[in-house]
Design brief:
There is one protein chain. Helices cover 30% and strands 30% of the residues. The protein contains four helices and five strands, in the order H-E-H-E-H-H-E-E-E. It has a five-stranded mixed β-sheet. The radius of gyration is 16 Å and the shape is globular. The mean pLDDT is 92.
Length: 125
């Protein structure tokens, strides 16, 4: 094996602690997912957290996250085994105005080699 000098590493745990990744494992498990799951802060703050004024439209972070998991689950069931999936999701951004968003879900190794899922927007990696 070739030797190399590690200059810097940034763990998943550090990213969660820093708020770069948002831990949504509890909600993911409620939706039937088995892996530790995070969403990027960009996805969370741009789309999962509803814009102000949508509470009257029945919008909440927990509801939007639940809907995202249901769409993701349906997309996964329609695919053969894969660790990478892209799908389009609609989010209500203002009364009567939806925005289509490309979402990427990746399953890979966590800090200790365990399977984990990360859900993000293109460019968040």
């Amino acid at each position: 094996m070739d030797e190399f000098n590690l200059i810097y590493s940034y763990s998943r745990a550090q990213a969660i602690e820093d708020g770069v990744l948002i831990d949504v494992t509890t909600q993911a498990k409620e939706a039937g997912f088995k892996f530790h799951t995070v969403v990027t802060d960009n996805l969370f703050h741009s789309y999962i957290q509803p814009p102000a004024g949508l509470e009257g439209e029945g919008q909440s972070s927990s509801g939007r996250l639940h809907d995202l998991f249901m769409v993701l689950r349906t997309a996964i069931l329609g695919k053969s085994a894969t660790d990478y999936l892209e799908l389009d999701v609609l989010f209500l951004m203002a009364p009567g105005r939806h925005e289509g968003v490309r979402i990427i879900a990746v399953v890979g190794p966590g800090d200790h080699g365990e399977p984990v899922m990360t859900i993000m927007l293109p460019g968040d990696d």
